[in-house]
Amino acid sequence: MDYVLLVDILGVVAFSISGVLSSLKKRMDAFGILIIAFVTSVGGGTLRDLLIGTPVAWLRNMTYVYVIIGTTILAVIFRKKLSYFRRSLFLFDTIGIGLYTVLGIEKGLAADLSPIVCIALGTTTACFGGVIRDILCNDIPVIFRKEIYATACILGGITYFVLLQFGFVESIIFISSGIVVILVRSLAVYFNLQLPSIYKNEEINPES
Amino acid sequence: MDYVLLVDILGVVAFSISGVLSSLKKRMDAFGILIIAFVTSVGGGTLRDLLIGTPVAWLRNMTYVYVIIGTTILAVIFRKKLSYFRRSLFLFDTIGIGLYTVLGIEKGLAADLSPIVCIALGTTTACFGGVIRDILCNDIPVIFRKEIYATACILGGITYFVLLQFGFVESIIFISSGIVVILVRSLAVYFNLQLPSIYKNEEINPES
Amino acid sequence: MDYVLLVDILGVVAFSISGVLSSLKKRMDAFGILIIAFVTSVGGGTLRDLLIGTPVAWLRNMTYVYVIIGTTILAVIFRKKLSYFRRSLFLFDTIGIGLYTVLGIEKGLAADLSPIVCIALGTTTACFGGVIRDILCNDIPVIFRKEIYATACILGGITYFVLLQFGFVESIIFISSGIVVILVRSLAVYFNLQLPSIYKNEEINPES
Questions:
Q1: What distance in Å separates the CA atoms of residue B99 and residue B125, rounded to the nearest whole number?
Q2: Quick check: C116 contacting B, CB < 8 Å?
Q3: Is B78 buried (19+), middle (13-18) or exposed (0-12) by CB count in 10 A?
Q4: Residue B137 Cα, gap to closest chain A Cα (Å)
Q5: Which residue among A51, A116, A140 sits closest to B65, beta carbon to beta carbon?
Q6: Taking the alpha carbons of B2, B51, C132, B201 in that order, is the dihedral positive or negative?
Q7: What is the ipTM score, two decimals?
Q8: How far apart are CA B118 and CA C39, in angstroms?
C-alpha cells in the first residue's frame, strides 16, 4: 500500500516537473505554470474517471494537491539545476507511467469493462496528462509523434491480461505489468527505438 | 434496428478514415493515428454523454472499438488508394452525421431537455469528434471556418421538432430529419455553398 | 437573488462578446462564432460541474442559452461599434469573474470539498471558459501568459475562507469575496500590474 503511494507521489513529482518545463518554454506566468503542472499530473486520471463515471480522485485527496504545488514551486526556483536531475526525472516518469497504467486498468476492471477498454483506460491514465499539457501549450502532443511511450503502456496492459488469464495472484500481475511498461520504455529510450515509420521517404498527399 | 447499427458503423468507418487522413498529414506515428481515429469517431458522442451525465456508450460496446481499430489499420495500409473512395467516404460521412444528429437529439429528449438544447446535443454528437480531432492536430477546427456542416445538423434538428409538433410517428421523424441533414449537406457541397460571409472585404480590427 | 441572476447575465454577456471578438479575429463563420461565444460563457462552469459530478447547469436553464444567442447576434451586427463599449465590457467581465469565483466556491463547499480545491474550482469557473476559447482558436490561453486575472480570483477565494473562519454571515462573505476579485482585477489593469516575472533577462534553455 504505502509503496504504491510512494511510487504514485514520485510519478506526480515527475509529471509536475515536466509540466513546469513545458510552460517555462512558453514563458508562461506563475499561474500558467501551476495549471500546466496540475493538468500534466492529474489530467490522465481525471479523463479516465470522467469516462468511467467515478468521482474524480484528486478533488478529495489533498496529498496530490500539496505535492503538485510544492513540486512546482521548487521546480521553478531550481529550474536551472533541473538538468542535473534528468536521469532521476526520467526514472520517476517511467515508474509513474508503469504505475498509472496498472491503476487505470484496475479501475476499468472494477467498473466491469472489457480488456481492450481497460488497456485503453490504463494508457489514458498514463499518457493523457501529457496530451492535455501539450494542447494547452499549443503543441501537437509529443506522444503522437515519436518515441515508444504509449506503446510501452499498451504492452504492459497486454501483459496484465495474459497473466490474469493464467491465474496469477493479483500482486504478481500488478508488479509484473508495471515492470513491463518500465522495461519497454527504458529499453526504447536506451536504444533510441521508435515505432516503425509508416512514411519511409514517401510524399504524403492525401485527398481531403 | 439493424439498419441503424449498419448506418452507425458506416459513420464510424468514415469518421475513422477522416481521422487517419488528418493524422497522416501531421506525420504522426501508429499510436497517434489510432488515437486520432478514435476521438474523431467517438468524441462527439462522448462529450454529449458527459454533458447529459449518461454512461459513455463505447466503453461497453466493443463493436465500435473493433470497427475503429480495423478501419484504422486498413486505412493506413491502403492510404494511397483512399482517394479512389472519396465519393463513398463523403457519402458515409454525410449519412453518419445525419444519424448522429438524430441519435443525439433522442438522447437529449430521453433526458428531458428542451428542444434547443437537444438540437445542440445532436449537433455536438455529429460535429465535435471532428473538432477534437482538429484540436489534437493543432488546427483551428475546420467546421468553425467553412462549409455547411454543422448548419445541416441544426436544420435537421429543427425539422425533428417541427415534425414532432405535428404529431408524426417516431420512425418518420427519425428518418425525415436524418434525410434533411444529408440533403442539405450534399447540396451544399455539390453547389459549393457556404454560410453568407460576415466579413465582406472589411478589415477586422476589434479592440481586445 | 435577483441581483445574483442579473450579475450572472451581465457576466454571460461580457463572456459571449469576448468569444465573438476572438472568433472574428480568426475569421470564423456564423456557426463557429456562436460555438466560441457559448464555450467562453459556459465552459468554466461546465468543467466545474463535470469535475464535481453535479448536473451541468446550462442544459436545464434556457436563460443562458437565450442570452448567449442574443448577445452573439447583436455583437456580430454591431461589431464595429463594440470598441465604444470597451469600458462597460471590462466592467461586466470583471463583475462576472467575481461572481463566478464565489459561485464556484459555494458549489465546491456544497460537495464537501476542502478550501484549496474550492478555490481551484472557483477559479476554474471564472477562467476556464476563456481557456477553452483560446484552445479552440488555436492560441496559447492568454491568462497563462499575462495579467492579474486568475490571481484576482484566487485572492478572492482566500478572502472567502478567511471570512468564513471568522464566522461572518454568508451574504457578507459572498459579497466581500466578490468585491476583492473585482478590486484586485481593476487595480491590476488600472496600474498595468503583472505577476512578478520569473524570467528576468534570462535565456530559458531547459533540458527536456
A1: 10
A2: no
A3: exposed
A4: 6
A5: A116
A6: positive
A7: 0.85
A8: 17
CA A43 to chain centre: 9
B145 and C21: CB-CB below 8 Å?
no
Does A184 lie at the interface with B, CB-CB under 8 angstroms? Answer: no
Q: Give the pLDDT confidence of A24-76 residue by residue, as tens digits.
A: 888 888 888 999 999 999 999 999 999 999 999 889 888 999 999 999 999 99
C175 Cβ under 8 Å from any chain B Cβ: no
What is the mean pLDDT of the segment spanning A110-129? 94
Pick the closest to residue B19 from A180, C7, A144 (CA basis). A144
Longest dimension (CA), chain B: 54
- Chain A environment of B59 (Cβ under 8 Å): 51-52, 111, 113, 117
- Is-contact C36 C23, C-beta < 8 A? yes
Q: What are phi and psi of A200, to 5 degrees?
A: 5, 90
Q: C25 contacts in B (CB within 8 Å)?
A: 204, 206
C123 neighbors C148 (Cβ within 8 angstroms): no
Q: C-alpha grid cell for residue C77?
A: 451586427
At C169, phi and psi to the nearest 5?
-75, 155
Domain ranges for chain C, please list them.
2-190
Q: Which of A177-202 are b and which e, b meaning 16 or more Cβ less than 10 Å from the residue's Cβ?
A: bbebbbebbbebeeeeeebeebeeee
Instruction: Give the chain B residue nearest C28 (alpha carbons).
Output: B145
> How many C-beta atoms surround the C-beta of residue A98 within 10 A?
27
CA distance linking residue C172 with residue B185, whole number of Å: 54
Burial class (CB in 10 A: 0-12, 13-18, 19+), A138: middle
DSSP sequence for A188-204: HHHTT--PPPS-TT---
pLDDT single digits (tens) B67-85? 999 999 999 998 888 877 7
